């Protein structure tokens, strides 16, 4: 053992470059593997700890009639719910520090659910105090005043018993984990920031929403979490509907009781009037009494009309995915996880192949020493142990360094990219002992297996054969030599380069695999960006051509159309709702849009990659591509839409391209009791679409207004993070390509040391010597790069198939520029490796190299 360790240390010192190459290639492979694999759980754990610390809601309940404290108590008693709290909020125009009227969303300060995280200052203690959005305000703003504007509607101001609020702190809110701050009907249509005040500052005893937190320790966005949500949701939905019905009955009952009292009072007044009429009271007094009674009758009729107009409440049950920030975050980590499916495994395969080449060369170089040890009686295991320790020590050190650098640095790099859009917390480090143990085991087992594979042939020979240099292989002609017109016109150096390139077939295969694999990784990384970069352009420039849309109650249709008629831009109306779409293969929720086929032209362009698709008529439907894939339907198949419990069948006439959300397009005549509840709006000349959106939001009954420009900007901001991830992938692939080239070129120079010395003795200049040895690297890089372009195309398709974002379809493509960039990077890294190895060639000692056999 002492001999083994001594020779091991000598070998490491003598071949330190080779040792470091194995270390680096394993560290890169393991680091990239563990780094990408840790990115999703680290991001997931970060969001989980942050949102759990602030007890973020799992369900957000809304009702058009609001909730009472009794309703909140009923929700709290629902099975699976740990806490429930009512909330009040209002959008207001307010002035801060002379900045003018800006829109803010003011919430009642919660005590149990969706708690704000104080960043500076303190929480409000009085009704005229508030804490504000830490993204917009700073610690220096504490002590300043936020003043409600007189330009607010009177109904808005009546919701508050204060008009000025002193800022006492800044905070983050779990409602807003991204930089998006919602839209509003006020001002520019964009909420500037959030504000929290004490519930006592609101003049209301009815809550606008109920926030529910579940009894669960499941990791957010995990399959187990959604299984828990699915198990609790039916109970919550049942209680929500029950309490909404009770609330409606209570309001109607109280209103009817008040009307009954008013009717009795009016009837008594009429009796008194009739009695006075008979008793001969002066006409003026009678006229005054009659006027009061008639006015009372008018008030009664108006009150009766108001009661009759009260509709049964519409309820909404929203989960965490309905929060725009949480939904976007979930999609982002899904993309990161999809990339992690295949990239790391490819890195590990390349690393293993290069290690095989390295150890095979090393064992071959030391065959004389192996023969001597065998002659001295050392066993197969004892001799192999040195090489096993050499490879395994480099691999294990590379594994440990790569694991902790990968899990510590790469997720931080990815998080720093997404921090632009989120930034709600520092990244939580995720350590997986199972992954660590598996990496160590794979590194150890792989290095041992590779070494035994490399040793098996040399150790099977006799000592007498091993102590002599290995006979060179028989010379062989290459295919090009038989093509005389080409071969005869080639220079001497070109012929030598071509022969040498194909002389060592194992090294040639390894170099082609290594370089081709790295090129494939770069193509895949760049292709991912290409597949994501243009989907918003396709969606909003080629499919959905309108500039804004609004959804509203059908009763508000006249008000909406009257408002839109006063503009210069055009619009169309239709029916839109979220429905369950089913087929023989399953069911899925989707946005269903019903329009007039002629009117849809210019607002919707339905097509696939080959041709235009006519807008459906009758009971026909056009289905978006990803929805059709998930339901397993194509043109000619049947789907069924659930209209409030009634299932209506449609024949699919086309599957259209679509990249954001799921859509089913149907004709307006196929919808029974058709009543428009959506408008699709074109921006007119000199029109401010944001002002139009704000005007729509101010109309009673308008539930949602979407401005395409804002929606697009939000998604573009999220997708821009992909550029940085692609840069990381390309850099890692480039680093791996460089290490592969360096290691294999180093082996090439070492095994051809006498040949290099010979050509130097023959008078080759330094440049000619370098060209003699290194030109084949360029050849292999070109061939390997071309192979990698094809493999990258296949790999890219596989990776994109693993990236499952439910509401998004990717345009799976690789641009010509990406192929050029990947190929150019491959050649560039080859040139860098050649420049570095040029110095090693210059240091070759001719005398020592030529007598090395002796």
Automatic annotation (TrEMBL):
Domain of life, source organism: Bacteria
Topology in the lipid bilayer: Multi-pass membrane protein
Residue intervals of the MacB-like periplasmic core domain: 511-698
Keyword Iron included in the entry's annotation: no
Stated name of the protein: FtsX-like permease family protein
Compartments where located: Cell membrane
Record-annotated ABC3 transporter permease C-terminal domain positions: 342-450, 728-841
One GO term describing the cellular component: plasma membrane
Xref: PANTHER family: INNER MEMBRANE PROTEIN (PTHR30287:SF1), MEMBRANE COMPONENT OF PREDICTED ABC SUPERFAMILY METABOLITE UPTAKE TRANSPORTER (PTHR30287)
InterPro entries (UniProt xref): ABC3_permease_C (IPR003838), MacB_PCD (IPR025857), Membrane_comp_ABC_pdt (IPR038766)
Stretches that traverse the bilayer: 16-36, 338-359, 387-415, 427-454, 508-528, 724-744, 778-796, 816-836
Coiled-coil spans in chain: none
Record has Cell membrane as a keyword: yes
Record keywords: Cell membrane, Membrane, Transmembrane, Transmembrane helix
């Amino acid at each position: 053992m002492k001999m083994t360790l001594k020779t091991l240390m000598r070998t490491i010192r003598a071949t330190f470059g080779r040792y470091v190459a194995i270390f680096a290639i394993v560290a890169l492979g393991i680091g990239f593997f563990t780094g990408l694999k840790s990115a999703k759980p680290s991001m997931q754990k970060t969001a989980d700890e942050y949102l759990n610390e602030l007890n973020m809601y799992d369900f957000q309940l809304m009702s058009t009639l609001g909730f009472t404290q009794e309703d909140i108590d009923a929700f709290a008693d629902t099975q699976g719910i740990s806490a429930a709290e009512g909330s009040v909020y209002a959008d207001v125009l307010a002035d801060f520090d002379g900045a003018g009227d800006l829109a803010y969303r003011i919430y009642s300060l919660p005590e149990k659910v969706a708690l704000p995280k104080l960043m500076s200052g303190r929480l409000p203690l009085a009704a005229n105090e508030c804490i504000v959005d830490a993204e917009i305000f700073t610690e220096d703003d504490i002590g300043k005043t936020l003043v409600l504007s007189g330009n607010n509607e009177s109904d808005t101001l009546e919701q508050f018993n204060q008009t000025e609020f002193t800022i006492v702190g800044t905070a983050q809110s779990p409602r807003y984990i991204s930089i998006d701050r919602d839209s509003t009907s006020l001002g520019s249509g964009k909420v500037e920031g959030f504000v929290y005040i004490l519930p006592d500052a609101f003049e209301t005893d009815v809550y606008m929403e109920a926030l529910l937190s579940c009894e669960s320790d499941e990791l957010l966005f995990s399959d187990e979490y959604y299984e828990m949500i699915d198990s609790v949701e039916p109970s919550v939905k049942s209680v929500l509907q029950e309490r909404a019905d009770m609330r409606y009955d209570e309001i109607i009952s109280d209103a009817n009781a008040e009307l009954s009292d008013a009717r009795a009072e009016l009837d008594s007044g009429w009796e008194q009037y009739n009695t006075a009429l008979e008793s001969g009271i002066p006409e003026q007094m009678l006229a005054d009494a009659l006027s009061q009674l008639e006015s009372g009758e008018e008030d009664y009729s108006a009150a009766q009309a108001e009661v009759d107009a009260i509709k049964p409440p519409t309820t909404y049950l929203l989960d965490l995915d309905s929060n725009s920030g949480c939904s976007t975050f979930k999609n982002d980590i899904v993309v990161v996880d999809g990339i992690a499916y295949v990239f790391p495994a490819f890195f590990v395969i390349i690393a293993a192949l290069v290690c095989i080449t390295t150890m095979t060369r090393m064992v071959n170089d030391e065959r004389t020493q192996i023969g001597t040890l065998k002659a001295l009686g050392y066993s197969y295991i004892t001799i192999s142990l040195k090489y096993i320790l050499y490879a395994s020590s480099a691999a294990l050190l590379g594994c440990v360094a790569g694991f902790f650098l990968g899990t510590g640095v790469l997720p931080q790099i990815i998080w720093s990219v997404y921090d632009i859009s989120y930034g709600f917390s520092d990244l939580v480090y995720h350590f997986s002992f199972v992954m660590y143990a598996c990496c160590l085991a794979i590194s150890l087992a792989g290095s041992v297996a590779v070494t035994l594979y490399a040793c098996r042939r040399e150790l099977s020979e006799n000592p007498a054969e091993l102590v002599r240099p290995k006979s060179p292989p028989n010379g062989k002609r290459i295919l090009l030599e038989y093509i005389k017109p080409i071969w005869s016109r080639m220079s001497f150096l070109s012929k030598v380069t071509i022969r040498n390139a194909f002389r060592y077939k194992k090294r040639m295969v390894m170099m082609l695999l290594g370089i081709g694999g790295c090129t494939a990784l770069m193509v895949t990384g760049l292709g991912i960006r290409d597949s994501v970069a243009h989907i918003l352009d396709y969606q909003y420039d080629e499919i959905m051509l309108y500039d804004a849309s609004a959804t509203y109650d059908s009763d508000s249709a006249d008000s909406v159309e009257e408002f839109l008629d006063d503009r210069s831009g055009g619009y169309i109306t239709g029916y839109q709702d979220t429905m369950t779409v089913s087929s023989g293969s399953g069911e899925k929720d989707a946005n269903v849009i019903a329009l007039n086929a002629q009117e849809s032209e210019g607002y919707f362009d339905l097509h696939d990659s080959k041709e235009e698709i006519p807008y459906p008529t009758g009971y026909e439907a056009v289905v978006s591509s990803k929805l059709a894939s998930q339901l397993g339907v194509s043109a000619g198949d049947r789907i069924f839409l659930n209209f409030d419990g009634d299932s209506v069948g449609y024949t699919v006439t086309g599957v259209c391209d679509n990249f954001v959300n799921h859509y089913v397009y149907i004709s307006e005549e196929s919808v029974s009791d058709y009543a428009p509840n959506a408008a699709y709006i074109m921006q007119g000349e000199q029109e401010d679409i944001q002002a139009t959106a704000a005007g729509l939001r101010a109309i009673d009954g308008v539930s949602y207004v979407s401005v395409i420009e804002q929606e697009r900007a939000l998604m573009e901001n999220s997708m821009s993070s992909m550029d940085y991830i692609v840069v990381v992938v390309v850099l890692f692939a480039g680093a791996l390509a460089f290490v592969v080239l360096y290691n294999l070129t180093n082996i090439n120079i070492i095994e051809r040391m006498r040949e290099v010395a010979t050509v130097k003795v023959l008078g080759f200049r330094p440049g000619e010597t370098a060209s003699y040895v290194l030109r084949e690297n360029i050849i292999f890089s070109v061939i390997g790069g071309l192979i990698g372009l094809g493999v990258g195309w296949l790999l890219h398709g596989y990776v994109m198939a693993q990236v499952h974002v439910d509401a998004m379809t990717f345009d799976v493509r690789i641009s010509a520029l990406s192929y050029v960039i990947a190929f150019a990077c491959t050649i560039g890294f080859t040139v860098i490796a050649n420049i570095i190895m040029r110095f090693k060639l210059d240091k070759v000692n001719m005398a020592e190299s030529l007598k090395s056999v002796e």
